[in-house]
Amino acid sequence: MRVPFRVGFEQRGETPRRLSLLVPLASVFAALFFGALFLVATGHSPIDTYSNMFQDGFASFNGITDTLALSTVLICTGISAAFAFQMNLYNIGGEGQLYLGLIGGAWAGIALGDHLPTLLMVPVVLLCGALAGAAWIFVPAFVRSRLGTSEIVSTLLLTYIGASLIKHVIYTPGSFFRNPNTSFPQGRLVADSASLDSFGSSRLYPTFFLALIIAVALYWVVKRTEFGYRINVIADSPKAAHYAGINANRTTIWVMLISGALSGLAGAMLIVGPYGKIEPSIITLGYGYAGIVVAALARNNLGLIIVSGILFSGLRVGGNNLQVTTDTPIHIGVMLQGAILLFALGGEAFRRYRIHVVRVHDVSTKKVAV
Amino acid sequence: MNENIWVLMSGDAIAIATTLILAALGALFTERSGVLNLGIEGILLTSAISSFLAADASGSVWLGLIVGSSIGALLASIHAALSVAFRANQIVAGLALVIFGTGLANFLGKPAEGKTVATVIKPLTFGPLSDIPIIGPIVFGQDIITYLAIALAIVASRYLFSTRPGLELRATGDDPATVDAQGLSVARIRIRYTMFGGALVGLGGSWLMLAQSAGWHQAATTNGLGWIALALVVFAGWRPMRIIFGAVLFGFTLQLPFTLQAEQITFIPSAFLEMLPYLATLITLIALSRPGSRNLLGAPRALGTPFVRDER
């Protein structure tokens, strides 16, 4: 088959600012449009579905506070993913590290709870969760830096192992993490000193501000510190980094450990916040995977992750309520996440390249700049 | 009785290996062309539910298999478009496909929840051959797709290493610039094999649904098989014949918990048995790694990198 034109890609020297904003926005709208086609095809009303989602995700007191509450977790898993991604390290096991954060946090909350005041206890729980998350990524980080084992597959396999672990600690009779007072298997509540209060009647916890502070602080670390400089050099050119005497192995391990710790922290935030115990349903929620989408949509920019994290949370919160208000399956929310990311990736090409269509056999090549 | 259960287990291990062989072969063809498709898990899930719905509506398992494979190719074409035409980051594109596929599958699967497959793929019988003790049920007790999967692996091996198109495919994954200089279209080859790979993965997912599962269990239907398949390709050093061996090996670890449970061997916690296949995959993966081992293992040299002809 001969086509009468050829599509040319021309690398842009510098991306126009308007495109940096336009492309993510356009991909959200394209995904929503695609989702609408799908809803129509399966006999649902897209207008009702979307207006319900918007209403429940952004446009009511409960909606907006629930959205910010969920974004607390997604911002953490988002920076966890982005922090590693920016160095071309694909930690996609944030999901599993989050499970371990839940276990680590719950352990501290139960075992140490009666010995420490809240002021100390909450930071200890968060720290234990972060450490557990970092521990869960230690083996992948170590073998990645020493042997070159693909961290993509290893971190992911560990997620499945982590899910089994969550089930094990909750469903095994007599388990430390299981509530001993009920026959129905559920998590044992952490001590009162390890629980924060939510704001007023909302389900939003102060951990939200901690997530914001961490995002901004890490943004600063990457842009302004020597550690961040090393990350950038290795990401741009491992060879140049080598000649500059940068120890890439050590940086690889540290970046991955920090990434694991951030996902673990997200799990521990659920312990001091809304859960207060290990909730086995966590393994069906995919907050860790959502972090990957949040990171990719923000193009690994740690500051922009706050925006994409909140946007995505709204989508999830709105989607979750759909089941209650309409008969549309809630999975439309997850599907839209994937679709937005796919469109964003396609849109990336317009941001990076000047794309023009060149007619073949035509002397006056007609350029259609996009 | 003790012997029977182990024979049964071996048969089941080979049966489970079918999905792994098909999915890993699909990933192998894709990766041999230089495209890394991490979206296998999403393709497996979506094709599984599509095949269920098609078989349920039409009453024909074969139509189910065809629909499942087509959906597999269709989803893979999204990946091909993004990674070949748009030169997107293939890792992120694959992950996006997993998320999209999982959501799509669960969305489509809503009406299928709680239903069982009405028509299933039945094992073939070879008359007296199937009655031979031990060997009979293991070798002659499988269904047609299992035999097809093994045959496909053998044919794929011949195709890759002894035919001209196979050579072109390998060259595209190793050294696309040379293929381009030969006047062949790198993009066309990559798109073609990515879609073909997706169809194979789709066949694996449909078979899993129609021959193995009793019904739709959302993401637990595939439960990470797609990721195991990806690790299997590394394990097999991108060689089809070794995939058969690896798939049966992993089939055993996947089947072991059920057999031990049936035998009421309970001194090993069930959670540990559940972890076993993933743990085994992880350990194998690490054991196969050496510093700078990617080329040594036989990974296509241009895997995951978009081909850009010097345009300026």
Task: Tell me what you see in this structure.
The complex is a heterodimer of chains A (370) and B (312). Chain A is mainly α and 370 residues long. Chain A is built from 13 helices and two strands, in the order βαααααααααααααβ. A two-stranded antiparallel sheet of chain A has the order 1-2. In chain A, helix 3 (61-85) runs antiparallel to helix 10. The longest helix of chain A is centred in the middle third of the chain and has 30 residues, at 118-147. With 312 residues, chain B is an all-alpha fold. Chain B contains 13 helices and no strands. The longest helix of chain B has 31 residues, at 2-32. Chain B is globular. Chain B starts with a helix and ends in a 15-residue tail after the last helix. Chains A and B meet through strand 1, helix 5, helix 6, helix 11 and helix 13 of A and helix 3, helix 4, helix 10 and helix 12 of B.
Largest interface: A-B, 55 and 54 residues
Approximate strand percentage of chain A: under 5%
Along the chain, the helix and strand elements of chain B come as HHHHHHHHHHHHH
The percentage helix of chain A is 55-70%
Which architecture of chain A per CATH? Orthogonal Bundle
Task: Tell how many strands the DSSP assignment of chain A holds.
Answer: 2
Question: What are the main properties of this structure?
Answer:
heterodimer; A: 370 residues; mainly alpha; ABC transporter involved in vitamin B12 uptake, BtuC; 13 helices; globular; B: 312 residues
Topology diagram in text:
The complex is a heterodimer of chains A (370) and B (312).
Chain A: E1 5-11, H1 17-41, H2 46-57, H3 61-85, H4 94-111, H5 118-147, H6 151-171, H7 207-224, H8 226-236, H9 238-243, H10 248-272, H11 287-297, H12 304-325, H13 332-352, E2 353-359
Antiparallel strand pairs in A: 1-2
Helix pairs in contact in A: 1-13, 2-12, 3-7, 3-10, 3-11, 3-12, 4-5, 4-6, 4-10, 4-11, 5-6, 5-10, 7-8, 11-12, 11-13, 12-13
Chain B: H1 2-32, H2 40-58, H3 61-85, H4 90-109, H5 135-139, H6 144-162, H7 164-174, H8 176-181, H9 186-212, H10 225-235, H11 240-262, H12 270-287, H13 293-297
Helix pairs in contact in B: 1-6, 1-9, 1-10, 1-11, 2-3, 2-4, 2-9, 2-10, 3-4, 3-9, 6-7, 6-11, 10-11, 10-12, 11-12
